[in-house]
Design brief:
With about 90 residues, the chain is of the alpha/beta class. Helix 1 links the parallel strand 1 and strand 2. About 25% of the residues lie in helices and about 25% in strands. The strands form two sheets. Strands 1-2-5 form a three-stranded parallel sheet, with helices on one face. A two-stranded antiparallel sheet has the order 3-4. The two termini are about 25 Å apart. The chain has one domain: FAD/NAD(P)-binding domain (3-Layer(bba) Sandwich), CATH 3.50.50.60. The radius of gyration is 15 Å and the shape is globular. The protein contains three helices and five strands.
Length: about 90
């Protein structure tokens, strides 16, 4: 996890809390890069894990079982989390 003493040299922003971002956050938690800050912007705090959908349909899992708490995962990874939507990206002004 990034320490408070590390200056932020680069910001990476994830838009949406899908499976790819959940995996990236988990990997980041295990091996963060000094000077880089992650931010997750997502409209929901939980995202379904599609790999468990067949088991859910078959009745092996509950709806709660197949969801990932992306807010908690972001916190674990040391990332900032904003429950919000994105309406545009201003690349010129960063």
């Amino acid at each position: 996890m990034r320490t408070r003493e590390s200056p932020v040299l680069r910001d990476i922003v994830f838009i949406g809390g899908g499976h790819s971002h959940a995996v990236a956050l988990r990997m980041w938690a295990m091996k963060p890069v000094p000077g880089v800050r992650l931010t997750l912007i997502c409209t929901d705090t939980e995202t379904p894990y599609s790999g468990m959908l067949p088991g859910f349909i078959a009745g092996h899992y509950t709806c709660e079982d197949i969801h990932i708490d992306v807010r908690r995962l972001a916190e674990f990874a040391g990332a900032r989390y904003y429950r919000d939507g994105v309406t545009g990206i201003d690349r010129t002004n960063r």
